[in-house]
Design goal:
Layout: H1 3-14, H2 19-27, H3 34-47, E1 54-57, H4 63-75, E2 79-83, H5 120-130, E3 136-140, H6 143-149, E4 154-159, H7 165-175, E5 179-187, H8 200-211, E6 214-220, E7 223-228
Parallel strand pairs: 1-2, 1-4, 2-3, 4-5
Antiparallel strand pairs: 5-7, 6-7
Helix pairs in contact: 2-4, 3-4, 6-7, 7-8
């Protein structure tokens, strides 16, 4: 085999998670399909070569965190994930993506008289089962508050938090400035057609593209991968 061909095969293999990682991803609660997960892992593996942390906004139960953590582990960097673990808008009782197994039945919200969501225990079990706890720093809090404290450059920022304009914009404005030169900004649930889904992630994706600071690297269904190519937001 020619050296160049061997290099291409090696790069391709490095962009795929191992079978144990893929099994942990598929076993975890969450909404990301396999093809988008593979694209996210490939982006994380590439970005990890910068030697900087990989950060995710919107942990939920850790399905995508498994992929970021595995890529971080293999590159000797750290994955960071940010979530308040009370569920996004569409995961609340009565909404389409509500999961009653994730309700903290021992608590009652005094304002709504409803038991709140708590995805943190399930997330921790996901990481434990995957053997990846040592490669993740989990920050429990609201994304804008955590972003105001963050000072370090990041190799990758994956935005997959709240899907209202308020939340998506806050995630973008809070975290995109920390993407290092050559680093990646990944946005999930980007639907150009309103008939396919909410428009807030699409609007921050368009904002990033229109800024001139990012260039599109890949599109996998609703997952967009952008590379920082210049200053700006």
């Amino acid at each position: 085999m020619a050296p160049e061909s061997a290099t291409r095969l090696s790069d391709r293999a490095a962009s795929l998670p191992g079978p144990d990682v893929l099994a942990a991803f598929e076993a975890a609660k969450g909404f990301m399909p396999r093809d988008e997960g593979l694209a996210l892992y490939a982006a994380a593996a590439q970005a990890a070569r910068l030697g900087l942390p990989l950060l995710e906004v919107g942990t939920y139960c850790g399905r995508s965190t498994v992929l970021l953590a595995a890529a971080a582990r293999d590159a000797g960097v750290t994955a960071v994930t940010v979530d308040h673990h009370r569920g996004s808008e569409e995961q609340q009782p009565g909404w389409e993506y509500h999961d009653p197994e994730l309700v903290d039945a021992e608590l009652v919200d005094p304002e709504t008289a409803v038991a709140p969501m708590d995805t943190l225990p399930t997330f921790r079990r996901t990481l434990f089962k995957a053997g990846l706890e040592d490669h993740v720093v989990a920050l429990v809090g609201r994304s804008p508050q955590v972003a105001r404290l963050w000072q370090a450059p990041l190799g990758l920022v994956f935005v997959d938090g709240g899907h209202t304009d308020e939340h998506a914009t806050a995630d973008y404005e809070g975290w995109a400035p920390h993407v290092a030169d050559g680093g990646l900004l990944v946005v999930h649930d980007v639907f150009p057609d309103p008939a396919d889904g909410g428009q807030a992630p699409y609007r921050i994706y368009r904002r990033a593209m229109d800024s001139g600071a990012f260039a599109e690297v890949s599109v996998t269904r609703s997952l967009r991968v952008l590379r920082r190519t210049g200053a700006g937001l």
